[in-house]
Amino acid sequence: MLGVGVNAIDMESAVKFSDSLIRSNGQGYICVTGVHGIIEAQSDPEFLTILNSSYLTTPDGMPTVWVGRLQGFSGMRRVYGPDYMMEMCRLSVTRGYRHFLYGGQPGVAQALADVLRRKFSGIEIVGAFTPPFQHLNAIEEDDLIAAVRKTQPDILWVGLSTPKQERFMNEYLGRLDVHLMVGVGAAFDIHTGRIKDAPTWIKLVGLQWAHRLLQEPRRLWKRYVINNPAFLWCITLQFFGIRRYGINR
To answer: Cα separations (Å) of 43 from 11, 212, 248?
Structure first.
């Protein structure tokens, strides 16, 4: 989609592939990507490469699912970040996978750890780290690397915004002793109740962006008012062959 390689998968296969990576002692990161990330990549070649270097880039929004189905992938389903997180946490109880939470405002990662422990009996949340707003300095970076090395998580959940979380995962792939990193955006705030999740019917008709916009208009208006029409225009040009895109890694 506009040069971004989005995996034509559903939730079941996303969890299956993630499980396979961890069990094989591999390393990789997952980008949970919708219209916002795809449009960001149009003006940022480095970010485009980061998306296309992922282990998986999942269809986070319904527009990406609809485009995939129009391209012939009828089995493609939405892999929404907060839902994917819950499915992986459920699996991890039986597998014994360990989790590390990175992101959110002060106290949010710790609150999320409490939520997950209540929801999934026996889940192993081994660490939580609230990063500064700016890039990690040398001391903060050393602290994070040491914390991950000490706790030995299998999955590191990154709750920052796009494209910050994807840049973080790409930069620290191989530097953090963890099998899988997943950028889940607002999942930290949604699961701790700081942001209300949209009803199922709103998600199915592709209007979750409007639900989010009503909650955070000052922060999100530009993302949706500009990005949504831009995506519709560009994807139309792609479908009619007026503009062609390749996948660069």
So the answer is: 29, 24, 14
Q: Are 158 and 184 in contact (CB under 8 A)?
A: yes
φ, ψ for residue 98 (rounded to 5)? -110, 145
Using the structure block, give the residue that is written with the tokens 């839902």: 83
Report DSSP letters for 212-242, one per residue.
Answer: HHHHSHHHHHHHHHHHHHHHHHHHHHHHTTS
Q: How many angstroms separate the CA atoms of 145 and 126, rounded?
A: 14
Joined together, the tokens standing for residue 27 give: 């390393």
Spell out the domain ranges in the chain. Answer: 11-187+198-239
Residue 113 structure tokens: 């750890």
The token pair at 45 is 């070649």
Helix or strand or coil: residue 192?
coil
pLDDT tens across 21-74, in order? 999 999 999 999 999 999 999 999 999 999 999 999 999 999 999 999 999 999
